[in-house]
Amino acid sequence: MYLHCFLPLLCLGLAITASGQDEDASASAPDAHASGLLGTQSRLFPPLPFRPHLPFRSRPKRPLPIPIPRPGFGGQSVDADMDDDEDGPHTSFVRCGPDFGACGEGQCCSAQGYCGQSPSYCQAPDCLIDYSTSCDAQKSPVGDDTSLISRPHIGDVPYGYTPVYSCTEPKTVALTYDDGPMGYTGDLLDLLDAYDAKATFFVTGINSNKGQIDDPSFPWLKMIQRMFRTGHQIASHTWSHQTLDQLTQAQRYDQMIKNEIAFRNVIGGIPTYMRPPYSSCDSDCAGDMDDMGYHIVYFDVDTDDYNNDTPEDIQQSKDIFDNALKLNKATGRPLLVIAHDVHEQTVYNLTAHMLKRIRTAKYRPVTLGECLGDSKMNWYRWEKPPVKDKAMNEETSISGSKPISPDGTCGTKYTCLGSVFGDCCSGYGYCGNSTLYCGSGCLASAGSCSLGDEQPSKNATFLRYRWQTPR
Ligand SMILES: [Zn+2]
C-alpha cells in the first residue's frame, strides 16, 4: 500500500507495469514468484484474469479519532503533512540521504532527505534507516530474541522458495488484511463476528506512526489478542514495512525477528506465514524466509482497495471481487483475497459486501491456513503455548514406551525423544530443544530434560549467527 520512492516517474512506471499479482508493491515482484505456485496450485482451476496495477492516488479523506494515526500514512509528501510537527520541514534544513550522508545521533532522515526528530521524520516505513539512528523501524520490542525457536518446516504447505498464491480448499475464500491493526480494525473484527467469518491479518509491528503492537498503551495489543482468541489467523507483514529486497540480509532478519518478539509478547508465539511488503521478495529474501521457516504468501484476487478508498470508488473493488467469484463459482475454485484494514471503505463498505457475496455463492470465509488445508497447529511456533492444560502434571504419570511425536505435541500420547521438533517435552506439552523446553517444567516422562545433551538445531544456530552478524 505504501509507495516509497524518490523518483515519481520511476515509481509510476513500476506501478503500471507491476504484475496483477503484485497489488501491494511499489516495485514489480520477481518473475520467479509469478511462475511459482501459479503454475502448480492453480492447475485445478482456471486462472484469474490479468489485471494491470494502477498507480497510488488516494488515501482516506475523513479524519480519524485522535490519537489513532491516520491509516495508510506512508510515502506521502512531508511538506503536506508537517504543519502540526514541532520541527517541521521549514525548521529543518539539515540534509541527509545518499548524497548527504547520515543525520546525527538520535535523528531521523525523512523520505525527502531532511534530518529531524518528529514523527513525520521518524515514521516507518519512510524514514531512511541507512541514514538515521532513531527511525521507528530501528526501535525494538522488549524481550529475548526469538531466533532460537525451533523452525522445522511442518505441514504440507510449501515454505520460502515456493510462494503461495492461491488457496487449495474448494469453495473457500481467504480474506486477508495487510498493514494493520489500526483505527478501523476493531470495527472490522466486530463485522467479521457478525458474519461468523474468519480472516487473516498480516500484521506490521510499528508502521505509520502507530506505536508498537506490543505496547499496552496502544489498542493494538488487545486487538491482536482478540483476533487470536476468536479464531482469526495472525501472520507477519514485517516489523516496519520496509522493502525486503532493498535490505541487507541482517536487516531482513531484523525485520522478521523484531516482529516475532512483539508477537511473542502479545500472543506467546510467532507466525509461520508472512507476506512481503510491496509483494517484494527476491530469491535471496525467499531463502531467508525459508531459513526462518516462513511460508511466503501473495494472493490471486487483488481488490485494489487502497486505490479506491472513497464511497464512490470502492465500487471498483467490489466489482473486482464479484467478477472473481462469478468466474470461479462453477468450479468451486477458492480465492485468496488481499485487502487492507487500514482503509475506511475496506472496513465499512467492501468487507460486508464480500461477506454477503461469499454467503450467497455458498463459499466459506475462512483463514488462510484453512483455505490451504493446513492444520492450525502449523500456523504458529510456540515458546509458551496458550493451551496449558494438555500435559500439566504429566510428571506424575507412569512413563512407558510412547510413539515419537509426529506433530510437535507430547505428553501422555507421544514422546519427543527422537522427534524432529526436539527431544525435550515442555510443561505445556510441546517438543523443543531450548531451555524453554528442557528447563523448568520439562516432562521427563515424554522426552529428555537434559539441555547438556541437546544442542539447538543447526537451523536455530544458523539463524542466531546470521541475525547477529551485520553485513
Ligand atoms: Zn503492506
From TrEMBL:
Question: Which region is the signal sequence?
Answer: 1-20
Upper lineage is:
Eukaryota, Fungi, Dikarya, Ascomycota, Pezizomycotina
The cross-references to Pfam families, in alphabetical order and at most eight, read: Polysacc_deac_1
CDD domains in the cross-refs:
CE4_ClCDA_like (cd10951), ChtBD1 (cd00035), ChtBD1_1 (cd11618)
Query: Ranges for the NodB homology domain?
Result: 171-369
Q: Where is this region: Disordered?
A: 55-86
Q: Which UniProt keywords apply?
A: Carbohydrate metabolism, Chitin-binding, Cobalt, Disulfide bond, Hydrolase, Metal-binding, Signal, Virulence
What's a single GO BP term from this record?
carbohydrate metabolic process
Q: Please report the stretch or stretches of sequence annotated as the Chitin-binding type-1 domain.
A: 93-137, 407-451
State its cofactor: Co(2+)
Indicate whether Ribosomal protein appears among the record's keywords: no
Record-given protein name: Chitin deacetylase
**InterPro entries per the UniProt record, alphabetical:** Chitin-bd_1, Chitin-binding_1_CS, Endochitinase-like_sf, Glyco_hydro/deAcase_b/a-brl, NODB_dom
List the cysteine pairs that form cystine.
C103-C115, C108-C122, C410-C425, C424-C438
**SUPFAM superfamilies in UniProt:** Glycoside hydrolase/deacetylase, Plant lectins/antimicrobial peptides
Q: Which domain of life is it from?
A: Eukaryota
Provide the GO MF annotations for this entry: chitin binding; hydrolase activity, acting on carbon-nitrogen (but not peptide) bonds; metal ion binding
User: What PANTHER family does the database record attribute to this sequence?
Assistant: CHITIN DEACETYLASE (PTHR46471:SF4)
